[in-house]
Amino acid sequence: MFMKKISIVVPCYNEEESLELFYRETSKVMEEIKKKVEVEYILVNDGSNDKTLQKMRKLSSENKNVIYLSFSRNFGKEAAMLAGFKAANGDYVAVMDADLQDPPKLLPEMFEILEQKEYDCVGTRRVTRTGEPPIRSFLARCFYKIINKLSKVEMVDGARDFRLMTRQMVDAILAMPEYNRYSKGIFGFVGFETKWLEYENVKRVAGETKWNIWKLLLYAMDGIIAFSTVPLNIAAILGVLFCLGSFIAILVIITKTICFGDPVGGWPSMVCIMFFLSGVQLFCTGIIGAYLSKTYLESKKRPIYIVKETNQKSRVL
Ligand code: UDP
Ligand code: MG
Fold it and tell me: Which of 194, 287, 204 is nearest to 239 (CA)?
C-alpha cells in the first residue's frame, strides 16, 4: 500500500538544549502511527550561535529521516519556516517549535483529521496564556482585535504556528514569494478549511524565548502593514476632519468679531494648535514611510534566507 509521509519542519535558533529532547519526544509519539505514515524531520538552523548545528549533524547521522538546513546567519523564524516548507517532501507538512511548547502528542489526532479529507489544515490554539507576563497577554489580545478590524484576512487569537497542512495548502503558501513574511497572515490569506484544536499553554522545556515586548510590538506592526492598507487612509480621513474643524473655527471667530467686536486673542492657543497639527502630519508621514520602506525592501528582491550547509542532496535550494 502507498504510504503517506509527514514532514515536520522545525525552525531552531539556539536550541541546543531542547533539540534532542524534542526529537526523542516526537519520535516516541510518531511511533504510534508508524504503520500508517512515514515521518521526515526538516530541522532548520537559523544562524544559532550555540551548538545547535552540531546537534543537528549528529541527529541526522544517526537517523536517516532527519534532514537539516543551516543558514549563513539569523534570518528569523519566518524565513526558517519558508526554507523548511521548500525542503519538505511530505504529503502533509507540520510546523513545530523546538522547545516542546507545541505538544507532539496532538500529531496523531491531527493526522487522522486530515485523513478524513474534510479539512486541509489542523491548527492549534492556546486557550490559556499561563506563564506569560499579563501585560504581554493583554497586548496580544488588543493586537488581535485591531488587526481583525483592519484586515480582511482572519487571524485567530491565540493561534500558534503549530499546524499540520496538506501538500496543496503548502504549495499555495510557497506560491507567495513576498519578502516581508508574516505567517499568521499568510496562513489566513491562503484560506482552506482549518480545524482548530485547543490546548493549555505549555512552558518551554529548556532555553529561553527569543521574544521581548519591543520585538513583539515591531512584529505586530509588521503584521498590520503586511495585511492591511487601512492605516494609509488615516491621513486622508484626518485631513477631512481637520478641514471641517478649521471651517467651523473660522465661522465662530468671524461671528464673534462681527457681533461682539471681540479681538482675536492669544498666541498660546495658536502654538498648541500648531504643535498638534504638526504632530498629526508627522504621524501620517510616518505611516506612509512604514509602507514605503516595506515596498522598498520588497522591490530589492533579496533572498529571504541563504543556506550554508545541508545534508539534503536531492533538491535545489
Ligand atoms: N526561532 C527561529 N529564529 C528566530 C527566533 C526563533 O527559528 O530568530 C525559533 C525558535 O528556535 C523556536 C521557535 O522559533 O523553535 C519559537 O521561538 P520561541 O520559543 O522563542 O517563541 P515563543 O514560543 O516564545 O513564542
Ligand atoms: Mg517557544
Answer: 287
